[in-house]
Amino acid sequence: MPAMKNKHLSSEEFLKEFYIPDYILVPNGEVKVLSDAPACPTLVFINSKSGGQLGGELLVTYRDVLNQKQVFDLGEDAPDKVLRKLYLTLENLKVRGDELAAKIEKQLRVIVAGGDGTAGWLLGVVSDLKLSHPPPIATVPLGTGNNLPFAFGWGKKNPGTDRESVIKFLEQVLEGKEMEIDSWHILMRMKSTPKQGSCDPIPPLELPHSLHAFNRVSDTDELNVSGYDTFRGGFWNYFSMGMDAQVSYAFHCERKLHPEKFKNQLTNQSTYAKIGCAQGWFAASLFQPSSNIAKLLKVEIMQNHGGWKELEIHHSIRSILCLNLPSFSGGLNPWGTPNPKHNKTGDILTPAYVNDGRLEIVGFKDAWHGLILLAPKGHGIRLAQTHRVRFMFHKGAADCTYMRMDGEPWKQPLPKDEDSETIVEISHHGQVKMLATQNCISKCVNDPPPSHEEYDADEGDNEHGTPSGEEWRKFGAAETFKILEDVDISRIS
């Protein structure tokens, strides 16, 4: 894709580079011959409910600057139906010798505006459709965490919604680079139980969009076990469980009950921090003794030479994170940059790459431990790198745990019987295309290796490494972890 041809184009001439004519968007529409094929034909999907009023405002602006028919409100138009119809139209036009249709299919890009869950939804749809030329996806940060946009250089703050801001974003899309990133398949199997008690099985609509990307397993599937429900899904940024997901779930429920209180990104982040305090995330061992993950499950990873190996989980860990991209909790990198030559764990741990076919597995003790991510070269407890991991939950100290996948949390029931088991298995599942800015933080295996200065200085702090009180004051914390200055912990119940 060429860089912006020149900076002297008028805005009208520039916007023609993104224009898709009606006859391609609407079957049997009026044919309009363009003198030149657009350099960057773009479909835009906007979650009008994201970012308070910003989603709706952004929808109006994009429809004003582009063809209205190439801008979709995700509350009204399902992306899978839109893309199926478009690609079917393109195929039919190509058969009839339409050269413009062939060029648009080859050069098509997608913009999705919303939170991480919305972005994951679009990635899942594009992945499922198995298109011959899948379009790369650019993400507009309209959510609270905005990890996906930040990882690929699109920022983490809500963008402007005026015409000038939209044109500036489109300039970045035109100049962006395509990156292949790993996608991850998740299989969850749990025992079917009567709908009663505080931890009822979750209605399918309450699960994340991305957990339905591959649909529910059929009755004839060999993975189905009598008396169990099995679900499949996918993620691209992270899967986490434990205290951090519990805080996210509480925030999600509060926003669902009182949407009028969540119309501002800064207010949302403040509320998130307060909920973290109320949930006991800053004193997990005191307020949440059942959050001791080691008492709830066994973790196994697939070794490179084959065969499962049990992963030891320290009793202090309250949250486990499986990370694919170098962005979590609003832009932090819990894995850091380990130096393979100085690692003391016995395994060779390498810097994280988004297309190396491996997940980085990190543990956290509590929110105070999370503050170390704000320190230079700070990181969580590095547990493993692997292409496949399995979590096996047994009857333990809690009836439920909390899980989160690409920004979407849910409450997960755990076994109530000694002989039953809930299994979550994650494995590598191909790659998808993202659109990134030239200087994004995500790195591929073929990029230049980190410099000596970028490696973490101390590789011996995997089991400890909690910052001092002075560091807490100095570094603050990420959205998931921090206590804001105006929060009086003693008043939170």
TrEMBL record:
It catalyses: a 1,2-diacyl-sn-glycerol + ATP = a 1,2-diacyl-sn-glycero-3-phosphate + ADP + H(+). It holds the Pfam family DAGK_cat. The keyword Transferase applies. GO terms for cellular component: membrane. Its EC number is 2.7.1.107. Keywords: ATP-binding, Kinase, Nucleotide-binding, Stress response, Transferase. Belongs to the eukaryotic diacylglycerol kinase family. The lineage of its organism: Eukaryota, Viridiplantae, Streptophyta, Embryophyta, Tracheophyta. Monomer. This is Diacylglycerol kinase. Residues 37-190 form the DAGKc domain. One of its GO terms (molecular function) is ATP binding.
